[in-house]
Design goal:
Blueprint: H1 2-12, E1 27-31, H2 35-46, E2 55-60, E3 71-74, E4 77-80, H3 91-99, E5 104-106, E6 113-116, E7 121-124, H4 135-153, H5 156-171, H6 187-194, H7 204-210, H8 215-230, H9 238-246, E8 253-255, H10 261-269, E9 273-276, E10 280-285, E11 290-294, E12 299-302, E13 304-307, E14 317-319, E15 329-341, E16 357-360, E17 370-378, E18 381-388, H11 394-400, E19 401-416, E20 434-436, H12 447-465, H13 481-487
Bound molecules: 2-acetamido-2-deoxy-beta-D-glucopyranose (NAG) (5 copies).
One 2-acetamido-2-deoxy-beta-D-glucopyranose (NAG) binds near residues 299, 300 and 301.
Length: about 500
């Protein structure tokens, strides 16, 4: 009853047309120059006429834009160090790349995967045919791999695929036109409208067991994928898990030269004033505007303030204080190694028997989540990317690798530590003009979810500043359904 009621209320909300002016357009200040902040800037300008476009300021603590998107350079090559893959059905990212004229590249779909249990590879796909092999040979290889997978995991593969496709189909509703898609005031409403909310209430393991997957598929294949994409086990919540599984499909792509160019380009075409190396230390409500104090002693008056960074590990002082549900970020240590793996560590007789993508099961003694080959220079000289939950010390790396020429370590506060049922911070943090994009990450964290959340925040800002929806509190569901019903 209640969700239906909410839905009908939301559908009644007038939705911004493309070119109405934004009244009293003062400064809109955005804290964070990652994909969430840059997408917010983009949609704010894209949904307002040029004459009414707000003055945008974007503050970024780091000396560069991109947030958790960035590249490292090993032996002259650039590799993605943070968010690295984009799903073919991520339409915002796709549109951004087209609009910005960025070239994209799709990854190879036939990784040589080995699943490691700490002592042996419990399952392996076939090693890929040599480069330059015929079309027929590559087709045959793909077919044999499918047979191998089917032989071990059976119908669970199809059930897993159905689970992911159902999620994607619901997620696609976020791209519906603005006339059929409401502006949402909470993440819960966004998820309920698409039918995805239930998935955030239970763990991925529970969801997949109900979907009929066998326990071997869950503890091997699914676990390998969640450990690679979110650094966590199948105890993550179902929606994050489904998004993670979608990240193992074919057709994944990335921006040539680095995904960070998406936020960089969006900020540029939004004409946002970018303040690099200027972090925001405090946000104070001054009545009609907010005073933002930066860590280099500047002050800014902002009519609207958008927090576009996870609040979990930054020290921003809000006055008056705000209260949001506690959330931990999952740290992923990304280690780039140029060198060569030690076949003895993996218990195989020769280095040519080590798969190019080593995924791992959820077992206490495995010190890394995955190891993948990024580039082969020759048979015993490669660049690898290793994910782990803790820093990999030199002593351990010296066991895993026979030779190391270069090692680069990055510690990312990468994504939330998911725990079903998820609790969501509000999008409107103070009931006024203080917004929070990254609350949506508690549902699932990805470039595209950042863009989807940002688009909704931009529409919410525009519609609320037009006074179309002044009584936002009544939609927050204070248990006053009776009164709401009367209003209808
Ligand atoms: C808004 O986005 C569309 C593509 O989605 C693009 O064609 C148009 O140029 C954009 N307008 C502005 C002002 O950025
Ligand atoms: C979303 O858009 C599709 C296709 O445009 C339409 O068929 C569908 O009814 C829309 N869904 C909602 C909930 O508005
Ligand atoms: C950005 O600035 C340029 C040059 O001043 C102008 O041509 C363009 O229309 C502006 N774009 C937006 C979205 O305001
Ligand atoms: C902010 O607004 C107040 C009140 O109008 C004004 O006194 C102050 O100088 C402004 N600060 C900045 C940095 O513009
Ligand atoms: C935030 O403040 C706490 C306590 O003052 C400190 O330990 C922590 O390192 C700070 N975090 C950041 C990201 O500055």
């Amino acid at each position: 009853m209640v969700p239906l009621l909410l839905l009908s209320l939301l559908l009644l909300l007038p939705v911004p047309a493309q070119v109405l002016p934004l009244p009293n357009a003062g400064d809109v200040c955005i804290v964070g120059a990652g994909i969430s902040g840059a997408s917010t800037a983009f949609f704010l300008t894209n949904y307002t006429s040029t004459s009414a476009a707000p003055q945008l300021r974007v503050f970024e603590r780091r000396p560069r834009v991109g947030g958790r998107l960035g590249t490292v350079t090993v032996a002259g090559d650039h590799f993605e160090a943070g968010g690295s893959i984009i799903h073919p059905r991520n339409l915002h990212a796709r549109r951004f790349a087209d609009l910005l004229g960025l070239a994209v590249e799709t990854g190879a779909d036939d990784d040589w995967l080995g699943i490691w249990d700490g002592t042996r590879f419990v399952f392996q796909t076939l090693r890929p045919p040599p480069p330059g092999s015929s079309w027929l040979r590559r087709k045959l290889h793909g077919l044999l791999n499918s047979l191998l997978l089917f032989n071990r995991y059976g119908l669970s593969l199809l059930k897993m695929d159905r689970f992911v496709q159902e999620m994607l189909q619901r997620f696609m509703l976020f791209y519906n036109g603005t006339d059929s898609r409401p502006v949402f005031v909470t993440v819960e409403e966004m998820l309920k409208w698409t039918g995805l909310y239930g998935l955030t209430r239970r763990t991925l393991g529970e969801e997949l067991t109900d979907a009929g997957l066998n326990s071997r598929t869950i503890s091997e294949l699914v676990t390998v994928i969640t450990r690679i994409n979110y650094g966590q086990s199948v105890r993550i919540s179902g929606l994050a898990g489904a998004v993670s599984l979608a990240g193992s499909e074919t057709g994944l792509w990335a921006v040539k030269g680095g995904n960070w160019q998406l936020p960089a380009g969006l900020l540029k075409i939004s004409n946002a004033t970018l303040h690099l190396q200027e972090g925001i230390d405090s946000i104070t409500d001054a009545g009609d505007y907010y005073v933002l104090k930066s860590n280099i002693g500047n002050e800014y008056n902002c009519t609207v303030t958008v927090v576009a960074t996870p609040l979990d590990e930054v020290n921003i002082t809000f006055s008056p204080p705000i209260s949001i549900p506690p959330r931990k970020m999952q740290h992923t240590h990304t280690t780039f190694v140029r060198g060569f793996l030690n076949h003895e560590y993996f218990g195989v007789s020769s280095s040519s028997d080590i798969p190019e993508l080593i995924g791992t099961m959820e077992l206490p003694d495995i010190p890394f989540s995955s190891i993948s080959v990024l580039k082969k220079y020759n048979e015993d000289d490669m660049t690898y990317k290793v994910f782990s939950r803790a820093k990999l010390e030199d002593g351990l790396l010296d066991q895993i690798f026979r030779r190391r020429k270069e090692t680069i370590r990055i510690n990312w506060a990468a994504y939330p530590h998911y725990e079903a049922p998820e609790a969501f911070a509000p999008i409107v943090l103070d009931g006024k003009q203080l917004y929070y994009v990254n609350t949506f990450e508690s549902a699932a964290s990805a470039m595209e979810t950042g863009a989807v959340a940002a688009e909704n925040v931009a529409r919410l800002i525009i519609s609320r500043r037009r006074g179309l929806e002044p009584h936002i509190q009544s939609f927050l569901g204070d248990g006053d359904e009776e009164e709401v019903r009367l209003d209808l």
